[in-house]
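Data deposition worksheet. Section B asks for the primary sequence of the deposited chain exactly as it was used as input, without tags or linkers unless they were present during the calculation. Section C holds the resulting structure in C-alpha cell form. Section D is free text for depositor observations; keep each observation to a single sentence. Incomplete worksheets are returned to the depositor.
Section A, Depositor: J.P.
Section B:
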Amino acid sequence: MVEYYIGTSGWHYEHWRGLFYPEGLAKANWLDFYAQHFSTVELNNSFYHLPSEKAFVNWRESSSQSFVFAVKVSRFITHIKRLKDAEEPLENFLGRAGFLQHKLGPLLYQLPPNMKRDDKRLEAFLSILPAQYCHVFEFRHESWLDDSVFQMLERYNVGLCVFDMPGFTCPVVATADFAYVRFHGSAGLYWSCYSDEELSQWAEKIVELGRGLKKVYIYFNNDAEAYAVRNAKTIARFLV
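Section C:
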C-alpha cells in the first residue's frame, strides 16, 4: 500500500495565528502543534538561505518520531549556478540537511521559469546526486515537460514534481518509486482556496499516480488565509 504524506509548504506563518495556531501558542511550539495535524512539511526557507545545524536539529527534535521534512534546495544551486559546477554547494547543502537524519524526506530542486530545457546540463547534474537521498525536480519552463526528460529522470530514480498553478499544470506522471505533488492555487497563485470538488478530482488522479509506488508526498503552497491547511486536511480525507 502506498503511503501518503500530506502537509503544507512551510508552517511558520504569522497570519495563521487564530486561523490554525491558537492565539496564545508560542511560536517555539508551532512545529509541535503542526506535527499533531500533519505527517510532513516542506521546508521553504532553505531555498533562500542555508539554515544552521542548530535549526535542523531543533526541527528534528521538535516533531513527532515519524514526521518527514521535504527540503527545498538552495536557489544558489538552481537559480545562480543553474545546476552547473554545483558539486561543492550541493555537498554543503546535503551535509546540513543531513542533520534531520531519518526525518529527511525528498529534496526539491525548483528550476527558474526562464531556464529552458538543457538535457546535457540536467543529466550532468543528475549524475552527481547521491543515490541515498530522494531527489525531485519542479520544472517551471514548459520545454522540460517532455517524455524524454521524464525518461531521463526515471533512469536515475529521480522524481518529477507534479504541480498545479493558474495557467500552468504539469503532467501527472511518476518518474521514481515515489511521487511528489505541489498545489500553488487554482484561481490565484498562492492565495486561492481549492474547492472540495477540485480536490476530489485531484485525489482520483493521485490515487492513480500512486499505484505501484511506495510513497506520495503532497504539499499545499496557498498559505493565504491558511487555505493550505484547510485544503491539506480535505484531500487527506479523500485519500483515506
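Section D:
The beta strands are 3-9, 40-43, 68-72, 104-110, 135-138, 159-165, 168-169, 178-183, 215-220.
The CA atoms of residues 21 and 30 lie 7 Å apart.
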